[in-house]
From TrEMBL:
Residues 94-220 form the Neurotransmitter-gated ion-channel ligand-binding domain. This is Neurotransmitter-gated ion-channel ligand-binding domain-containing protein. Residues 1-23 form the signal peptide. Keywords: Membrane, Signal, Transmembrane, Transmembrane helix. InterPro entries: Neur_chan_lig-bd, Neur_chan_lig-bd_sf, Neur_channel. It comes from the Eukaryota. One of its GO terms (cellular component) is membrane. The keyword DNA damage does not apply. The chain crosses the membrane at residues 268-288, 295-316, 328-351, 414-436.
Amino acid sequence: MLRFGRSELFVFLLLSWYKEVNSGFISSCVYKTNHTDIAKVLGEKQDLPEDCIYYYLVDREQKRTGDGYHLLLQPPPTEDRINVTVDDVLIRTVDLSWHDDRLSWDESEFSDIQIFNLHDAHHIWTPQFGDETACTMQSGCMSKINDVEISSSGTVSARVTFRYPTFCTINYYRYPEETNDCCLFLSNSEDNHDIKYNIHTRAKQSVEKQVAVSKVEQEPGVTVVTTVDSSVWTVEDRTIDVAKIAGVRSEFLRLCVHAVKRMSTLRMALRVPVTIATMLMLVAPLFGDLKTQSYVKLVTLCLQTMCFLFLCSIAPENGFGGIKPKIYTFYEFLFVLSLISVMVTLMALALSRVRRTVPPMHGLYLTAKLLNKFLCCIEPDDSIAYERQFDELPEARAANPHPERDYTMEWRHIYIAGNNLFSGISFTMFVLLTVFDIV
């Protein structure tokens, strides 16, 4: 009589072979217990041919070694390391396969059955995996092998389902949509069995799966893990490889995922207002004379400052880990550009108030006049008094009855053209950098 089962439930099965193997093993494989009762206890209908194969393998191992439990307790007899092949990887599961000669059979003896799934009541040796943390089942961590499939050649395929904390590194360069690289190191928890991993799946594969927020609750004798919400993190791809740690003889299966935080609403809230304010500043020449431009630029500079204060208010309390986010570089660029633009306009306004008695170069004056009239649609207005000239006072005119010729208006054309040209170049550069997301 053999004892098998889980959760203190034991089902006693007796197998009897009434004929020789070459006359047909399946036809003589029967239970001496009631099949209906077994199905009722186990909650499922057992497949009789598969059970016959399993107990045939157990009986063969019993005759060979004198202990049928070797299939469960001992790894495949091999002088070299056990080769475990990684066939596929998902977020929380890994598909594995390995070879065990003790589980091979002749297909012709079992109605050409080549593959069968191992029932929960049947046990064979499987590699046991653990991680490098001290997380226990009471904390919600676990590693379980299920969906075990055996082929007639002795190849075993199984799926490892696990839940462990990972080692993560956050990159804040694209804040608020930062990236997170998390890695988990799975190793064989049996020190006396050395395992060699062979990766037969793509090392890197796209996933695009949203991360779920789980809640772990401790109840008497059981840990309940429930999904309560979907987080803002999305796994873009996963990577698998074999790692070797110094001082450790065995190999580690390293599973890494690359996750990205999807915060498109917040990203737009941080970029759109300050972008609009900067565009208004750079097209200030369209609002009128230099005084009006100065007021517009000072107002937009205040708006940029408010946007920057909002950005600082939502920053992580622990900082960005020594990495300056790209959006901070974007704000720095806008502040520097805006400050230079304000200084250029104020300088042009100040120079326009200075009386000039020396004429400018004729070609430069014509170019400035053409730029102001046809390209920027703005030129000096004679009715605009930037500042009352000293020579306009009666006392000054009486003291100097023959004043020198005034070229102030011609120079104003040049100053305004320089301000407009700087605004045009800055606007073009700003649009290109914003469209192509360079800063």
